[in-house]
Amino acid sequence: MDPELEQQPHAGSHSGATIEPSPLKQFLAIFRRRWRLFSITWTATLIGISIYSFTLPKLYRPQATLEIRPETPLVSSDPQNAQLMATHELWDNFYRTQESILNSATIHTQTLNALPEAIRRDFESKGDAVATLSAHVDIEKIRNSFILKVGFIDPDREKATQVVNTLVSLYLEEANRHLRELKLGAAEFLSKETLPAMRQRLDDADATLQKFQAANGFIDPQEQYSALANGRRIILERITQVRLRQMQFRAQIETLRDSGADGANNGLFHPAFQNSKLLDFLASQQETIETELARERRELKDDHPTILQLQDQLKRTQGKIQQAIRGMLHSFETDLSATEQEEKAALQEQARLEKSMADVSQRVFQFKRLDAELTTARELYNSYLKKHGEEAATSGTGLGSVRVIDHATVPRSPFKPNIPLYLGLGTMVGLLVGVGVMLVSEQLDDRIRSAREIEVFLALDVMAVIPKFGGSSKGTPYLLDEHSSIAEFEAFRSLRAQLTTRLEDVPGTKTVAVLSPMSTEGKSTVTANLAKVLAMDGRRVLIFDADMRRPTMCPQFGSKELPDLQKVLLGEANLSDAIRPSRIPGVDVLGLAQGTSRAAELAGLPRFDEIFRKVREGYDFVIVDSAPVNQASESALIARRCDACIMVLRERRTSRSAAQAARRRLSGMGSRVLGAALNAVEGPESAYGYYGYYYSYYKPRLENENSKS
Questions:
Q1: Which of 158, 219, 464, 475 has the most other CB atoms within 10 Å of its CB?
Q2: CA neighbor of 646 nearest in space, from 457, 447, 462
Q3: Nearby residues of 364 by Cβ (< 8 Å), 6 or more positions away
């Protein structure tokens, strides 16, 4: 179904609700039409597959289960273990190797020779016996495990079981023989070549280490290096202390030189003199003389003998103080020189210790290297010695990495064919083929066959189902008369009732276009008879024949005399002169006397719209008979000018694709599609609604009356 059609509102609904066709309903409608074809196809497919499965020969597959497992665990707490990854890869290669051995021609030849004479002759009678046996060997690999399943496919279950067990036994025997030879060869190689070389390497490493220790007096170089490092640390602490004392001495010397060398009293307050009693006495004496001198100067003159005497005493005291400061300064300089000599000696000792440490460090490195070489040689020798013991101990045992879990037993049911599987497959394939054939057949023939299909696929209400008229001829509209059946009248009465009810919302004159997707679908017949039943109800009706390519209304129901609609459109005649009474009571007709090739251009003239407006005056209904929608470009344009339109679809002739295309074109032009009329329905069983039942009920009575008359 076209998506655009699904989005259009249901034209016949008064509530305006949108009805979207359901894909399920469409499929069910197709199934309803094609269920016989589907059933035949499905049944034929199922029967064919069933016959094929029952005619296949029965094949049996006994199997033996082998476990090919590693000798070392493949579990490690370290996910990044490179050794574990290498073990996995090696084991995977070993797994594939065992599979190749089981498929090899050598083992198959040995198996063939080990089988009983009767079985061997059976294989030899088929040509290449080894190739025949190999073709029937079936090995199943269980991935992500260590399991191999060895099977043999053959119609004889006893023979197949014996072949599998013989093959597995020979495989284990051959594998054990190769393993013993491999282990014996490995043990011999280890004892003759590898182990002596490893022992010689161990002895050489031990001798080299002993020689190194003897050259160094068997003193541990690491302990010697630690003692030298401790002595260097002590020397560094001593150098630091000496440099701190030097800084103190230099600071004191600079202070004494700046503040006390000139004999001023400021030097007495230097921190170096705080504990000196001599300076305390001289300072006290200087202070006493200065006090006495100041007191005498207030009474005596400067040249007085007492003043001169006091000045002389003060000068002598200051000289003693200056002499004491110079002595202290000399002492500090002497101490500074001593600390410098001590620092020089400590630096020399530091250089000596560092040189000794460098020499010892090199010996430590050599000792560690030699010791590591000795340890590696010892471990390597011990590992090879252990491997030699293992190879020698297990050289007589079987293949520890391969064992038989289950030996082959005679199977009860065949391996092929699997009858339930074939029947299930046939059922599914039959369903798919049946549906495919049904859908392909529907695509090849999608003609509308019932009113239900119109509702499902076009989303249109069926306003009337019109039976096929027996008296109609091709190209000539059939008009109801006194000889028409009740069903024929009831069909158009139903269409009239639907039309008038659905157009109650349209005020005044109502214009209705009667359209069909393609030609010869009974559009003109529906137009004429719809106009007749409307006139029978007392309404004034005009048939507007807008099919200007092949007009039928004027030639059949009106007059061929001019002027006609074409003259009116060209302005050569008046509209009132072109409207004529038809031979249908109460119905007038307007149209062309004969067809024209300029139909599309005439429909597009402004005067055409003016005619549409004028014909509404004086009529209750204007029924417009237009050209087929899909074959004439002007049909959708004319339908757009009408209040509503009705699609006429002919049973078993109109295709769904053509109807959908017409519906899309009308919807795209904004036309209001009220519904559809299914025309030319054959037989009462195809009738629709109450009048179909009415027709089927009265048909026998009508036939009796006609036969009597």
A1: 464
A2: 462
A3: 221, 222, 225
User: Does residue 640 form part of some domain?
Assistant: yes
In degrees and rounded to multiples of 5, residue 622 shows phi and psi of -120, 110
Q: Quick one: 583 and 697 in the same domain?
A: yes
Say whether both 360 and 466 belong to one domain: no
Burial class (CB in 10 A: 0-12, 13-18, 19+), 433: middle
Q: Clarify whether residues 471 and 360 are in a common domain.
A: no
For residue 660, what are its two tokens? 């959908």
Grouping H, G, I as helix, E, B as strand and the rest as coil, residue 340 is helix
- Of 353, 375, 394, which marks where a domain is finished? 394
Q: Which two tokens stand for residue 686?
A: 């195809």
Q: What is the pLDDT of residues 272-322, one digit of tens each?
A: 555 555 567 777 888 888 888 888 888 888 788 888 888 888 888 888 878
Please state, in angstroms and rounded to a whole number, the distance separating the CA atoms of residues 24 and 11.
Answer: 22
Coil, strand, or helix at residue 514? strand
Q: 286: which 2 tokens?
A: 């200087």
What pLDDT band is residue 84 in, cutting at 50, 70 and 90? very low
Structural domain includes residue 597: yes
Write out the DSSP string of 108-162. HHHHHHHS-HHHHHHHHTTS-HHHHHHHHEEEEEETTTTEEEEEE-BS-HHHHHH
Domain boundary among 351, 376, 394: 394
Number of domains in the chain: 2
Diameter of the chain measured on Cα atoms: 197
560: containing domain? 458-702
**Structure tokens given for 75:** 């579990």
pTM of the model: 0.49
- C-beta of residue 98 within 8 angstroms of C-beta of residue 174: no
Structure tokens at 8: 């259009």
Residue 349 and residue 235 share a domain: yes
Burial category of 421 from C-beta neighbours within 10 Å (exposed 0-12, middle 13-18, buried 19 and up) = exposed
Q: Is residue 504 part of a domain?
A: yes
Q: Tell me: do 509 and 643 sit in the same domain.
A: yes
